[in-house]
Amino acid sequence: MIVVYGIKDQLNPIKAKLSDVIHGCMKSVLGMPEDKRAHRFVPLEREDFYYPGGRSDAYTVIEINMMSGRKPETQKALIKSLFQELESQLSLAPIDVEITIKEQQPHQWGFRGMTGDEANDLKYKVNV
């Protein structure tokens, strides 16, 4: 699951394209299938979103929650791909993007009535 935060006046107009860019990177780097898009957007009022100095109102935070198993070099490739594609397709400067990957053990995920370690029918690989 991916959660994206930003100032609503900046985030709302680009949500659909941003989702496409993020999912494109997830597919190309992690091999996620087309139908595994799980994005949540949290558009915030300007007064509810504090961010570091040197950033513009386009500052966007992307939290990627995933089951553990991806190699560090795969995670780094995902982050670098996101920076590159967000800049080229949405003109989001890397200084205005913060990306964090939060990993949880498969047994800490619950979906379709089971835990992640019980799922043996995933259409994608976790250990990449």
UniProtKB/TrEMBL annotation:
Cited Pfam families: Tautomerase_2
Stored InterPro entries: Tauto_MSAD, Tautomerase/MIF_sf
Coiled-coil blocks: none
The organism's place on the tree of life at top rank: Bacteria
Name of this chain's protein: Tautomerase enzyme
Organism: Alkalimonas amylolytica
Biological classification of the source: Bacteria, Pseudomonadati, Pseudomonadota, Gammaproteobacteria, Alkalimonas
